[in-house]
Amino acid sequence: MGRPDHGSERVVKIARRCLVAVGAIVMTYAVIGALTDADVKAGALVFLIGVLVAHDGLLLPLTIVVGVLVGRFAPRRLRTLVRVALVISLAVTIVAFPLVLGRGRAADNPSLLPLHYGRGLVEVYVVVWAAVAIAALVQALRARRRAE
Questions:
Q1: Cβ atoms of 63 and 87 closer than 8 Å
Q2: Could you read off the pLDDT of 99-127 as tens digits, one per residue?
Q3: Which residues of 54-87 are buried (b: 16+ CB within 10 A; e: fewer)?
Q4: CA distance 91 to 132
Q5: Is 7 inside any structural domain?
Q6: DSSP designation for 74
Q7: Is residue 55 a part of any domain in this protein?
Q8: Whether the Cβ atoms of residue 102 and residue 110 lie closer than 8 Å to each other
Q9: Could you list the residue range(s) of the whole structural domain that residue 129 is in?
Q10: 80 and 148 housed in the same domain
Q11: Which of 25, 66, 109, 112 is deepest in the core (most CB within 10 A)?
């Protein structure tokens, strides 16, 4: 596979610029709405600032470091698959973590958090990484066929 032609590079560049512009407009709208809405409490703004700091100060640098390590140590043909699986695993973990911890579970109300969320999280990991293994196998088989 060769380099894409200049036309497709231009389309990608325009698409990126459009996505950045749309994202900036949406974020501006959200911030203005939060600052001008009387129903938004100061605690919500503190929470959002905390999330932003945690994301930019911890999560993003950690993701970059892990991506670099994967690029250094994983075989070239598996790098993208491993990176995708790691990002999916991270996203699922972040969403599931409060449920796995059981915050909000009440002994007198078994319908609150009724499932075994830790086991469910492990099952999601198994599905994600099994899909990566299958994709890697398909990729290897296609490469072998091309080489023949």
A1: yes
A2: 898 877 777 888 878 888 999 999 999 99
A3: eeeeeeeeeeeeeeeebeeeeeeebeebbbebbe
A4: 16
A5: yes
A6: S
A7: no
A8: no
A9: 74-148
A10: yes
A11: 66
- If asked whether residues 95 and 36 sit together in one domain, one would say no
The residues facing 109 across adjacent strands are 106
Q: Spell out a b/e string for 128-142, using b for 16 or more CB atoms within 10 Å of the CB, else e.
A: bbeebeeeeeeeeee
Give the largest CA-CA distance in the chain. 68
Q: Which whole-number Å values give the CA distances from 136 to 2, 103, 128, in the listed order?
A: 21, 37, 12
Q: How far apart are CA 136 and CA 54, in angstroms?
A: 33
Which residue type sits at 128?
Answer: V
Residues 29 and 93 in one domain: no
pLDDT at 126: 98
Nearest to 70 by CA among 55, 56, 87, 54: 87
